[in-house]
Amino acid sequence: MIRAVVFTALAPIIWSTGGLAFRIADADPWTMLFWRSAINTIVLFAGSAVIMGSRFRSGFRVAVVRGIPVSVFLALALILYVLSISNTTIADSLTVQAAGPLFIVVLGWIVLKERFRWITGAALLAVAVGVALILIPSIEQGGFNGNILGLLKALSFASAAIAIRRRRSVDMLPAVVVAAAIATVVSAIMAPTLRVPTRSFIALAYLGVFQTGIGYLLFAHFSGRIPSSLSGLLVLLESVLGPVWVWIFLNEVPRVLTIVGAAIILSALVTHTLLYPGRERKPEVPIE
What we know:
By secondary structure, this protein is mostly helical. The protein has one domain. It is built from 14 helices and no strands. Helix 4 (55-65) crosses helix 10 (172-190) and helix 8 (118-141) packs antiparallel against helix 14 (256-275).
């Protein structure tokens, strides 16, 4: 149990370094997305094959045939993540993206007719206040578009989670491999150039191999061995630590209202996770 908790927590800690690595890469967003996605596709394909063993071939076939809606939503989440952090501060982007798990509950109520509980309504109201504190100042101070893209990223991931609930034969690991491949193709078309300086390539290789590749495989392999409420709390480490790295190393200081909004949003998510009276189930894996 302790080992599973440690490795599950390690995943969002690794994810939290993504913003710092993207800032270091300092290239066109589509170019950065191409290299990260291309490398990520290779790493996830190999890692999924090892983890799933004999199940990988059939799982991959199902993901391609029946899981395309899942992979399309996940690919959109991958794309929007990069576009968001490229157009606003890391603190703003990661904070609004943290609302993803709550969106899953809301979409589950709308699409799957799951019961909507008062604790979810209260959490939604708190999150709306927190997001407003981040969005309103960004209209004049910059970053508004990036914040909206961050919210759309959270909604895209939530849509993928709902789609995979409706297609229970679809395994998340092969679906993410297909999603990374889709993001690679789209970014190759959109990128003005695929050439990057050596320093940028090293940062993007780190993103593809470790931040999304190893980080995702760790979470997918170990999170199912601990209670979903605990893994849901551990995921929030990304939103907490991500702004800290760019603050320490790049002096990207979040606005006061962003800190207040983040505190409200994260408090609402923690409270909702602890009090939501749903059945324990394997948690949906965030996609960055």
